[in-house]
Write a structure and sequence with these properties.
13 helices, 2 domains, Dehydroquinate synthase-like, alpha domain, four-stranded parallel sheet, 45% helix, Rossmann fold, alpha/beta
């Protein structure tokens, strides 16, 4: 049975519909032929593009579908320009919609276009990956990468609806699915120790895409993110806890070249790194850090970056992280499972020594 989670942001509130076969565009009423730009990518388009377009057209939208190349490298200024041009050619106006059909890259790119075209048109998310369903489609973060780093240009821009059809996960490649589990685990670490224990108990079912476990898990993750975003929409304080593991993760993605690491894979390594920093810096019990490493491994996620990555290059990449101030990265670290602290400074020696441990 489908479940609805509300993101409560006063006039910017919106629903997240979660379930198998959820109807798309439920907030749309009489649209009078409003135009919509349906943005997807070259992997998702042959699987879900035509069906999604037909569903939106059945609700009265005049829908134009555009598929961009799959992959994180597409999330740049060039493709923003291409989508601006297509929106202008199709005569989108202030009443129009931009719809993201895909994973995190598509949502970030299409959301940035929606936030900035004509100073903002309505935006809708139809996530097709686990990572997008539990994380990137919720909360209003949009952004694109610059050569200097990930997500350095962006805007906070809330969608009017998120429709997470779990049936779309059936076609998701195994590596992409497992990558999404890293963001799932994150919610247990930052917010809900009971949920973390459930992940440990249900690791086999989660990895095997058990339908009931998956629906409950996605709904709970969305509830947590909705609560955090409602507290701090623009990441001025508490919302920063959602970045647990991401400081190293973004550096890994940049240094490795976008594509070598899937985002969730880099986050998994980053969470292990953050957990080990937490043992020394914020009092996390080593046994709990080990539990996190064991759970990530049980879910088929990497817990080490392996050989060949230079710490100096990673440390340099951290300078472009949005949480870095005066050339010092600020980390989200755990005091215990379910309770984390943002904005923690760590000495250069501890950063390097912990990397030496976690890179083996």
């Amino acid at each position: 049975m489908a479940k609805t989670v509300e993101v409560r942001l006063e006039e910017r509130s919106y629903p997240i519909h979660i379930g198998r076969g959820v109807a798309l565009g439920q907030v749309l009423e009489e649209t009078d032929g409003r135009r919509a730009l349906l943005v997807t990518d070259s992997n998702v388009e042959p699987l879900h593009g035509a069906a999604a377009q037909a569903a939106f057209e059945a609700r009265g939208l005049a829908c134009v579908r555009v598929a961009v190349p799959a992959g994180e490298a597409t999330k740049d200024l060039h493709w923003v320009g291409e989508l601006y041009a297509r929106a202008a050619t199709e005569k989108l106006d202030r009443s129009s919609l931009v719809i993201a059909l895909g994973g995190g890259m598509v949502g970030d790119l299409a959301g940035f276009v929606a936030a900035t075209y004509l100073r903002g048109v309505s935006f809708m998310q139809v996530p097709t990956t686990l990572l997008a369903m539990v994380d990137s489609s919720v909360g209003g973060k949009t952004g694109i990468n610059l050569p200097q780093g990930k997500n350095l240009a962006g805007a906070f821009y809330q969608p009017i609806e998120v429709d997470a059809d779990l049936a779309m996960l059936d076609s998701l490649p195994e590596r992409e699915y497992l990558s999404g589990l890293a963001e799932v685990v994150k919610y247990g670490v930052i917010w809900d120790a009971k949920l973390f224990r459930e992940f440990e108990a249900n690791a086999v079912a989660l990895r095997g895409r058990d339908a009931d476990v998956l629906e409950r898990t996605i709904a709970r993750c969305c509830e947590i993110k909705a609560e955090v975003v409602a507290m701090d929409e623009r990441e001025l304080g508490p919302r920063a806890i959602l970045n647990f593991g991401h400081t190293l993760a973004h550096a890994l993605e940049k240094v490795g070249g976008y594509g070598r690491w899937l985002h969730g894979e880099a986050v998994a390594v980053g969470m292990r790194y953050a957990a080990q920093l937490s043992v020394a810096q914020t009092g996390l019990h080593q046994g709990d850090a080990d539990r996190l490493t064991a759970l990530l491994s049980a879910l088929g996620l990497p817990v080490t970056a392996g050989p060949g990555l230079d710490w100096g290059a990673l440390r340099e990449a951290m300078l472009s992280d949005k949480k870095t101030l005066r050339k010092t990265p600020r980390f989200v670290l755990a005091k215990r499972l379910g309770d984390v602290m943002p904005g923690v400074e760590v000495s250069e020696q501890d950063l390097a020594e912990t990397w030496n441990v976690c890179s083996q």
